[in-house]
Structures are given as C-alpha cells and as structure tokens.
Design goal:
The complex is a heterodimer of chains A (168) and B (115). Chain A has helices at 14-25, 99-103, 111-119, 140-158, and strands at residues 52-57, 61-63, 77-81, 89-91, 125-126, 129-133, 162-166. Chain A has 168 residues and is an alpha/beta fold. Chain B has a domain at 2-80. Chain B contains five helices and three strands. Chain B starts with a helix and ends with a helix. Classes of the chains: A alpha/beta (168), B alpha/beta (115).
Amino acid sequence: MPHLPPDDLDVVDHIQQTRDSYSQLGYEPYRWALETEPAPFVAPTKPLADSRVALVGSGGVYHVGQVAFHHKDDTSHRRIPVDADVADLRTSHFAYDMTSARVDPNVVFPIGPLRRLVDQGEIGELAPNALAFMGGIYSQRRLREELIPALVADLEEMEPDVVLLVPV
Amino acid sequence: MGLIARHLEGLGYPTTSLSSAWSITASANPPRAAFVNYPLGHTAGRPNQLDEQTDIVRSALGLLHTAAGPGEIVPLPHTWPEPWRAKARSLSDNRTERHDTPQYQRPEDELAVTT
C-alpha cells in the first residue's frame, strides 16, 4: 500500500489524471512503477557541510552547445557543469509546462540554490557535473538497461557522498 | 526517478528526492522525499525565487540526516500563491507530440551544437 498523503494536504493525483486523459485520448495506459518493498536505506557517513553533493534532474535540461532531447523514450543524459551560467541552460520535455523552467531553469534543476548552499558552508562541495535527462520514459527495461548504468558510471567517477534527485 | 533513487541507494549512495507528484512518488517508493505541493514544473520552487528554492533544496538534503527509515515523504510548508488545482485536475492533455528528433528550445540552439 503506497504511503498516503496526510488528510489535510490537498494533493493532485497525477497518476489518476494521466490514466484518465490517456484513456480519453485512446492511448495505452502508462505503467507507473509500483514498488511495495521498502527501499534500500543508507545513512550518510559525513555531515552535509563536509559532503560532496551530486544533482540528478529529469526536467529535460541541456546546455547550449549540447544536443536537445528527443521525445520518444530518449534514455540519454547530459552532463551540465555545476558552474554553468543558468542563462545557458535550456529545457526540452514533452510532458510538463516548461514556461517557468524556461524563465529560470533552477525550478527543475536547482544548481543556483546548491551553489548558494556551498557558498554558505552548508554543503561541502558539488560534484563537477550535474546530470540531466528527460523523464517520462515508458520503457522500464530501457531505463534499467540504458539510463541507469550511464548515470551510475558518471556518478562513480565523481564519487559524491550524497545524491539529490529532482523529478518533474 | 524513484526507481533511480532506489537503485543508487542500493549501490551505497544516500539519496534524497524532491517531488510535486505525491501519488507517483509514493508508488515508486524512493528512500526519502520532500514534497512540494506546487503545479508540475516547479519541483524546486518558483522562478527567480532563490531564497525559496534554497529552502526547498535545504529541506530535501536535511532528510538525509533526519529520516528514520525508508519511504518517508515529508510535506514542505510552501504554498502556491494562487489557485491552481482545478486546472491541474481538468482532463486537458497538454503533452506535445513525441518526435524522435532533438527538440530544441530555440532554433539557434541546434546551430550551436558542438558535442
């Protein structure tokens, strides 16, 4: 049984929304991941102020000079230097309203806030590249066989102490 | 993203996630998540609100040291300043057609490709 929101929190049920709109459009239903086993759980070994933090975001962010995402189960990812100028970041995604993200990419890919936390001494440092991909991948097989190993390879090279994941 | 979080945690990386889609996150069941009750596309806060974005990111990272066990989804206190749920619940599907060629934000981005 998935964890339910508290009664006093008015949340939009995006799974139900998508089911309804897809069936109305005659599309095949999207099969959301359902994980009933408890997740693995690893305690950090250092305080955040001494930790290297890696960012992974699924908002379809690319840097000027990089190839944009295509919208048919694109399982590639982009390495975004964490010192990138936010004005050089772009978004490409089929499934969310990018109006705000195109005004300020930090709303889905918060490298500005992370840099501030480093400046304030609250986190130690950032992994040199933040990793960006485009969510909404239909094939869990391709997610497991293509995207995840590629992300893991990059993370292994950067040796972060903790990873922040930002979906859309 | 929940599957990725579970996978990374299984490899030994402590992970923390943001979410604005409770049902999707609860279903994928990542180790830890901070919930931002905003319209999709603002998981880390509103545009050009660096203080708010920083608070949200700090809260997500804080879970690494406060969550007692896997599966916690912690609602953050931020509230969107205008009504938005009725629109989000309407059935209009705003997904764009799924092209298999790169979809650039700006045409000039395609000309700037170097990698």
